[in-house]
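Please fill in the sequence for the structure shown.

STRUCTURE ENCODING:
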């Protein structure tokens, strides 16, 4: 994605009444929390501003997959989208091992592996594609004796990917754990943020006004409103809605897999993740069901979800399962065709930077791009404020 580094004069000298910081990040989803953790590690004096609760809009409603893009290559050909993301599982595992700038050691995973499965006769040429040398180390067909227990009773083929699934709520807690005094609750708009005459932005808190050299927007669905409030007009945003389905079955089986049975498009028929809560297991359904579901009424989508589970996972009992809808609006940089972007997006204009991870798994890519457009840190003195702190949001299940 294009980016521009702008040379500028530093802000006027810090005083007790107008403290200065390097970066103010707007938006407390995965992009903002990742940026805060990374930039603090690199010596930047940052704050994170969130209008409600961390992760409440998109991050906690995501399926938590850290994937290498094979679900974007189900046409049987590697694509720009599949290859732009191919290295992300390795990058995240480095973070989980403490071998990257963002240290995620101790962060809880929901599943160490992700799977693809299908009735054996329905994959066609994908069988040859999955076995190709180009995909070695990214996907492996596993024998029935190696299948996880959720596939007991299934008749078909199962592949194990090098993907895995994060507990997104725990991920956010890990990212901000050492920076809680920098995570502030503020609805960013023209009443409390404005360009400063000497460069950067002035931010008004309950107890003081702060000068930030750079403003980084990770505001997701709030990005357009923030840009409008600041007079920024040429970084358009698009939304791609999903109609996800949450299912609470009577059984307590959990699954983390893409269903490819009878696949008729270049995306998974169902993308399944699961959550164990005090009141039982919840299945969270995405994939083609969620993408195409926005064209259906809620009643039609629920009927479609029940039918898809009975077709894709018929060996489990769905008779008395409870079904619900969760609509998610994905915010991304506007594309000419309206399709999803292939990589993370970071663009700088003067002292304003617009960021979109475009998908959870691309957070490390976003961090790399953000570091490439920042000036060196200038203001080491931490901000002291009594302004209210923002808390972690609640997962939708």
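FILLED IN BY: designer on duty
SEQUENCE:
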């Amino acid at each position: 994605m294009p980016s521009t580094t702008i040379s500028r004069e530093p802000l006027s000298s810090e005083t007790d009444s107008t403290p200065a910081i390097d970066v103010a990040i707007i938006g407390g989803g995965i992009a903002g929390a990742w940026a805060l953790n990374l930039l603090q590690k690199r010596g930047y004096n940052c704050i994170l501003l969130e209008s409600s609760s961390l992760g409440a809009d998109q991050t906690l409603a995501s399926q938590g997959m850290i994937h290498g893009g094979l679900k974007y290559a189900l046409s049987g050909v590697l694509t720009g989208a599949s290859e732009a993301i191919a290295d992300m599982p390795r990058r995240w595992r480095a973070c989980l091992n403490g071998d990257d700038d963002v240290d995620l050691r101790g962060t809880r995973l929901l599943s160490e592996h992700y799977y693809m499965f299908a009735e054996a006769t329905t994959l066609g040429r994908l069988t040859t594609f999955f076995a190709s040398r180009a995909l070695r180390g990214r996907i492996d067909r596993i024998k029935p004796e190696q299948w996880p227990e959720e596939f007991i009773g299934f008749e078909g083929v199962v592949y194990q990917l090098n993907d895995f699934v994060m507990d997104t709520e725990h991920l956010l807690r890990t990212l901000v754990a050492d920076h809680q005094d920098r995570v502030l609750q503020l609805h960013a708009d023209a009443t409390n943020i404005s360009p400063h005459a000497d460069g950067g932005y002035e931010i008004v808190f309950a107890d003081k006004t702060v000068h930030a050299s750079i403003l980084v927007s990770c505001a997701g669905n709030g990005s357009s409103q923030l840009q409008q409030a600041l007079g920024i007009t040429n970084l358009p945003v698009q939304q791609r809605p999903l109609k996800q389905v949450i299912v609470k079955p009577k059984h307590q089986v959990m699954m983390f897999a893409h269903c490819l049975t009878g696949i008729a498009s270049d995306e998974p028929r169902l993308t399944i993740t699961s959550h164990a809560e005090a009141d039982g297991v919840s299945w969270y359904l995405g994939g083609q069901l969620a993408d195409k579901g926005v064209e259906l009424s809620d009643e039609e989508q629920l009927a479609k979800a029940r039918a898809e589970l009975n077709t894709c996972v018929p060996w489990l009992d769905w008779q008395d399962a409870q079904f619900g809808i969760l609509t998610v609006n994905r915010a991304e940089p506007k594309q000419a065709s309206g399709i999803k972007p292939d990589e993370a997006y970071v663009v700088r204009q003067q002292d304003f930077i617009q960021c979109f991870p475009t998908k959870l798994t691309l957070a490390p890519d976003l961090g790399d791009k953000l570091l490439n457009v920042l000036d060196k840190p200038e203001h080491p003195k931490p901000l002291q404020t009594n302004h209210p702190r923002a808390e972690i949001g609640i997962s939708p299940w």
